[in-house]
Amino acid sequence: MTNDYIVKALAYGGQIRAYSALTTESVQEAQTRHYTWPTASAALGRTMTATLMMGAMLKGEQKLTVTVDGQGPIGKIIADADANGHVRGYVTNPQTHFPLNNVGKLDVGRAVGSNGALTVVKDVGLKDYFSGSSPLVSGELGDDFTYYFAKSEQTPSSVGLGVLVNPDNSIKAAGGFIIQVMPGAEEETINKLEEVINNMTPVSKLIDQGLTPEEILFEVLGEDNVQILENMPTSFECNCGHEKFLNAIKGLGQAEIESMINEDHGAEAECHFCRNKYQYSESELQELLEKMQ
Ligand SMILES: [Zn+2]
Asked: In 3-state terms, what secondary structure has residue 26?
């Protein structure tokens, strides 16, 4: 259990749908598992935070995977989440770091690059998938998710994401919000919201000040306008396991498994998402071969 959680809310009598998340411990877990350097921690943490909130929009056993590929030095960022507050993620090059940018912030845009796309694949159950993609705007990720919602899901949104890193590379604070205009919202509400968002304190500052997810939504939308619906605990969690990778080894085919037995005298698999390692002995591989025949 962690102290991280997501808040789901409505505002302006249901014209606005809002999510806000505190993800400090989940991002810390990713930082520890992947040894990310500060700029990479921010990029991965922002992506995981957005993915987690998008997961909270799903139902039941549905889940989604977000891939950000801007052809920058960090490589790809991959995160996935389910509807129950579980998230995991990794980046191609976790030891990516640059000096602070000209506004004194971690230079996520430089690490991610902006020559590419943000792609979302939703597993909506019964082998049915929804897939959407939009070009990256800046690689800063908040803007990129905002653009994704407008372009790919036709939902005007505002996405704010923030990750603060301590001098020792640990995560000081992480979180964010997604605010979405629902169909049929009044022009007046949309205009008011735009004005608020254009003038609001940067989300990283709100997180640094220790605001809870509820308080972040009150800050953005006005406390009197917000109706909190649900509060869901969240955490970094990976569903990998010994059996799963054994299945993957099976998929490599007989010849490959024989060479693992004869040349390597066993096999080791490492999970991209959580870095857990799984060992397979010669005899276990032999048993697998026998089952396959
Ligand atoms: Zn794993």
From this structure: helix
Superfamily name with CATH number, domain 242-292: HSP33 redox switch-like (3.90.1280.10)
Q: How far is the CA of 226 from the centre of ligand 1 (A)?
A: 37
**CB-based neighbours (< 5 A) of ligand 1, an ion:** 238, 240, 271, 273-274, 276
Alpha carbon of 15 to ligand 1 centroid (Å): 39
Per-domain residue ranges of the chain: 5-236, 242-292
Q: Which CATH class is domain 5-236?
A: alpha beta
**Å from CA of 254 to ligand 1 middle:** 25
User: What pTM was computed for the model?
Assistant: 0.94
- Dist CA 214 CA 212 (whole Å): 5
Distance 276 CA to ligand 1 centre (A): 6
User: What whole-number distance in Å separates Cα of residue 239 and Cα of residue 84?
Assistant: 13
- Quote the pLDDT of residue 292: 86
Q: What percent of the chain has pLDDT over 70?
A: 100
270 alpha carbon to ligand 1 midpoint, in Å?
Answer: 8
Pairing of strands 117-123, 226-233: unpaired
Phi-psi map region of 47: left, alpha, beta (phi>0 left; psi -120 to 50 alpha):
alpha
User: Looking up tokens 């969240």, which residue turns up?
Assistant: 234
Question: Mean of the pLDDT values across residues 96-103?
Answer: 92
